[in-house]
Design a protein that fits this description.
This protein has 248 residues and is an alpha/beta fold. Helix content is 25%, strand content 30%. It contains eight helices and 13 strands. It has a five-stranded mixed sheet with strand order 9-6-11-10-13. Strand 1 and strand 2 form a beta hairpin. The two termini are 34 Å apart.
Length: 248
C-alpha cells in the first residue's frame, strides 16, 4: 500500500484489531486522512510490543487513550549542523494533531513492519526516521549510522480533546551539514536556532499563536540543554541513557 506518497507495508495478521471508532474526517486534508491508515507499533509503558494492531487514527483518539489504550512507539529527531544550530520545524496547518506547533527537526512513528520493528541498535526506529525526514524535509543525505539514540521518554498529551498522543518516544540525534527542503503538507516553516536562542525563539512564537508541541516542550525543559552541551563538546556518547523517562 501507499500512504500519502510513502509505502506502508501490511502488518502481521495474527494480532487483535483495535476498534476504529467513528470520527468525521471530512474537515481534514486528504493526504492527512490517508496517513491515518498507517499501522503503528503498540507497546506497553516499558516499550514491549503488544499483540495488537492499531491504526494511526485509533492510536491518537483521546477516547481510546483515556479508556486504557496503549501507547505507541515514536521518534523525535534532533538534527544539528556544524555551527551547533538545531533544526526546528513548524507543523503545517494541515496536520490533524498539533497543527502550527513548533517542534524538533522531525517527529513521527515507525510502522508495524519487520523493517521498522528491528530492535538491534534501534535500527527499526532509525529507518523510520530516515523515511520521514525524506518525506517531510527532502533529506536524503543521512544514514542510520548518522543517528544516535540518546534516550526514550513516555508522555501523554491532548491536542484538541478529540486527538492526542501517548508515546514511547525515541530521541535520535544527528549532526551533519545537509540540504533541507520542506513538504508544505507536513511542514509550514523551518528554522535553525542556536543554543542561546532557543528559549526566546519559542517564547516569541508562542505570542504569535504558534505554540511549542508538548513533546518538544518536555525535551526543552528536561534534557535538551544537556544534549546540546554534549554535542558542542563532542561527547554525545556520555549522555546516552536508554532507560525510559516517564513524563506522563
Amino acid at each position: 500500500r501507499r500512504v500519502h506518497g510513502e509505502y506502508c507495508p501490511r502488518t502481521r495478521t495474527n494480532m487483535a484489531l483495535v476498534s476504529q471508532g467513528e470520527v468525521d474526517l471530512s474537515q481534514y486534508h486528504d493526504n492527512q486522512v490517508l496517513s491515518l491508515n498507517e499501522e503503528l507499533i503498540m507497546v506497553n509503558e516499558d516499550d514491549v510490543p503488544q499483540p495488537v494492531v492499531a491504526s494511526k487514527k485509533q492510536a491518537h483518539l483521546m477516547q481510546y487513550l483515556n479508556n486504557g489504550g496503549l501507547p505507541h512507539r515514536a521518534f523525535s529527531v534532533l538534527l544539528f549542523n556544524s555551527k551547533g544550530q538545531l533544526l526546528l520545524q513548524q507543523r503545517s496547518d494541515d496536520k490533524i494533531t498539533f497543527a502550527r506547533n513548533w517542534a524538533n527537526s522531525c517527529c513521527s512513528h515507525p510502522w508495524s513492519s519487520p523493517e521498522e520493528m528491528e530492535p538491534h541498535n534501534q535500527l527499526g526506529v532509525k529507518r523510520a526516521a530516515l523515511r520521514r525526514m525524506k518525506h517531510e524535509l527532502n533529506i536524503e543525505g543521512l544514514c542510520v549510522d548518522d543517528l544516535t539514540c540518546v534516550g526514550r521518554i513516555l508522555y501523554k498529551a491532548s491536542s484538541d480533546g478529540l486527538w492526542g498522543e501517548y508515546e514511547v518516544d525515541y530521541i535520535l540525534i544527528a549532526q551533519k551539514d545537509i540540504e533541507v527542503g520542506r513538504n508544505p503538507e507536513e511542514v509550514a516553516d523551518i528554522a535553525w536556532v542556536g543554543r542561546n536562542e532557543i528559549q526566546s525563539f519559542l517564547k516569541d512564537k508562542a505570542t504569535k499563536a504558534e505554540p511549542t508541541s508538548p513533546w518538544f516542550k518536555l525535551l526543552v525543559e528536561h534534557s535538551l540543554d544537556r544534549w546540546w552541551e554534549a554535542i558542542e563538546q563532542g561527547h554525545l556518547a556520555n549522555v546516552i541513557d536508554l532507560n525510559i523517562r516517564r513524563w506522563t
